[in-house]
Amino acid sequence: MVDLEHIRGLPPYLQERIIGQDHVIPRVVPIIQNGELGLSDPGRPKGTFLFLGPTGVGKTEITLLLCEYIFKDVGKHCIRLDMSEYQNQESLGLLLGQGEHSRGNMGRFYDRAEGRGIILFDEIEKAHPRVLDIFLQVLDAGRITVANGETLNLCNFYIVATSNIGADALMELKNSPMATIERFIEDLAAAELRPEVLARFNVRCVFQKLGYSAQKQIASIMLNKELKNLRNKGYELTAGHGVIDLLVSQGVEPRLGVRRMRTTAESNCRHAVREALMAGRSTSGTLIAENGHLVIHP
């Protein structure tokens, strides 16, 4: 039975959690809704997405959020394949197995996911050309054959590929219209990945570099998650002067974007609690930024 209320709830769910990429959500949601309503093409994956853009802007995050919303258990239903591990022809054996009784990583992950979920091909531009050929088969036919001869049906999966192609060029194009940026990045991707690969995706999205306002929003989200975690452990803390600015200054890197923001929020908050505990001071109060660290003021 299709849960229509749950399907209707996907846009606001993503809007609350994906910051600075408002143009992406209206493109992704209809494909997911088609898949969940049984409207996707038979004999193919339920939906196929190519997410382009710099590191640390939300490409992987939206994939994990989609998996969490649709399938609940990300660890079980998200098959994440890092294409940096599949850069040579020998790596095909790692993916599909070697020998008549082998099923490779695909077979193992497929079983764990119970034949449904999201397959994430991370940094697809790093894949060996033979791996790209297999990827084309997945996009076209919704199936893949592993070394033991078994054909895995991928029609109950969504396929996501991410790529950093053109990320450096985005700085030069930052004042250009979004349509110009997307066209430029997609042309670069077509040249590197092959036009026939790009043509197979239902949706291609270029993720923008995050501005300072978006960085602060993400820092606030990560901070609130950590404060909730600490509250569950008995530490009542609120955020005061300079906290968000400190997290942004430490959690944003030119080449990694906001990828380290979660770790930055966790380590700073826990540092403040640890120092208070070790000094015998109160562990409840207001977090304040002082000398590059967070401290607790009762």
UniProtKB/TrEMBL annotation:
UniProt key word Membrane: no
One GO MF term: ATP hydrolysis activity
Domain spans labelled Clp ATPase C-terminal: 210-296
GO cellular component: cytoplasm
Family matches, as Pfam families: AAA_2 (PF07724), ClpB_D2-small (PF10431)
Record keywords: ATP-binding, Chaperone, Hydrolase, Nucleotide-binding, Protease
Annotated GO biological process: cellular response to heat; proteolysis
Ranges where the AAA+ ATPase domain occurs: 45-189
Key word Chaperone present: yes
UniProt xrefs under PANTHER family: ATP-DEPENDENT CLP PROTEASE, HEAT SHOCK PROTEIN 104
Name recorded for this polypeptide: ATP-dependent Clp protease ATP-binding subunit ClpB
Lineage: Bacteria, Pseudomonadati, Verrucomicrobiota, Verrucomicrobiia, Verrucomicrobiales
